[in-house]
Amino acid sequence: MPAEVNIDPVELRRLYIDEKLSTRQIGKKLGCHCDTVSKHLCKCGIPARSSCVKLHLDENILRRMYIDEKMDAPEIALSLGCSSATVVNYLHEYKIPLRSQNVYNYDRSFFKSFTRESSYSLGCLMSDGCVCDNGGPHYVDLTSVDRDWIELFRSLLKSDHPIVEISQTRGHYGSKPTYKFRIVSRELLNDLYALGMTRVKSQNMKFPDMSLEFVLDFMRGYHDGDGSFFVDMRKRLVSSVVGTKEFLDSWCEKLELLGMEFDSAPIRHGNKSCGMYIKVFTGKKAIEFARLIYSDGKVPMMSRKYEIAKKFM
User: Fold this and answer.
1) pLDDT value of residue 102
2) What is the pTM of this model?
3) Does 111 reside within a domain?
């Protein structure tokens, strides 16, 4: 049974009161279920916001998104932070004629087996992706501030699903929009589970059971999401990646099998509130790792991270 998640009351108050994030958004950020967040709100004496306040959707904005931009109700809901039912209700209220439901396409055979492309894409999802099968629609999300990376992922799946801008994010790179790509498909979720995707990644994630020939593609996809390349104060290349302890132990074991010498630097505890760890390669080790995952220059990759590593390769 997974260990209970401990949430810092000060951090919880900041996210819920100051940033006005929902319990679902906080749960995704901290790696726990929204019900867990609700319990901690009650435990910390933080008053829950009223769910009875009616969200107002501007008619002009709704007409632009639904009629001009051809977005459907779930996409508009995702962009505006409300439910699909709320969008549909306002479409009726403003007497906007409903279209038949959009039918989007993607390569349904893509995640049926491990290939170089599906292994890379699985890595993307296991880092910055999210799966949902809790009684509502079954869907897969990929979220990032790098729109070109989201577009790359979409192109690999041969999908025509839209990419939606959902918010402005303040982080290491300043204030940037965040983009979300979603496919609603029970079949897709089942295929991903068969390849090793897990629901609560921060607690249950394990390295997928795959042939060694696909490991570097998977690592590159995962590193593009939950890894980083940067240059430290001593002008050395540094690579870091986060995950569960079991996942990172397997990560290091796979690299040794692929010819990378053993690295004695320990796997350090990262975010204690959700059980995540971090593995760091510095200097020659970081360069060796970069040369491994970018050994074939034609492979899919996030260009921003590749450009940093390329200067040292």
Assistant:
1) 63
2) 0.72
3) no
**Exposure on the CB side of residue 197, measured as CA atoms within 13 A:** 30
Nearest Cα to Cα of residue 312 among 236, 217, 247: 236
Tokens 């995540």 belong to: 276
Question: What are the backbone angles phi and psi of residue 270, rounded to the nearest 5°?
Answer: -95, -105
In angstroms, the CA 19 to CA 79 distance is 17
Coil, helix or strand for 220?
helix
- How would you label 239-265 residue by residue, b for 16+ Cβ within 10 Å and e otherwise? bbbbbbeebbebbbebbeeeebeebee
Indicate the number of domains in the chain.
3
Boundaries of domain holding 36: 1-53
CA 61, 66, 68, 71 dihedral sign is positive
Only one residue has tokens 């940037």, namely 176
Sheet harboring 129-132: ordered strands across? 129-132, 139-144, 174-184, 163-171
Q: Are residues 137 and 268 in the same domain?
A: yes
Q: Do residues 151 and 215 both lie within one domain?
A: yes
pLDDT score recorded for residue 43: 75
> Average pLDDT per run of 10 along the chain, which is 313 residues long?
63 76 75 75 72 70 84 78 82 87 85 97 94 79 93 96 75 67 90 90 84 96 95 95 92 93 71 71 95 88 95 93
CA–CA separation, 266 and 247 (whole Å): 14
**Cα–chain center distance at 278:** 17
Do 142 and 174 fall within a single domain? Answer: yes
184 and 127 within one domain: yes
The pLDDT value recorded for residue 111 is 97
Q: Which amino acid is at 61?
A: I
Residue 107 lies in a domain: no
- Going from the C-alpha of 140 to that of each of 198, 243, 288, the distances in angstroms are 12, 20, 33
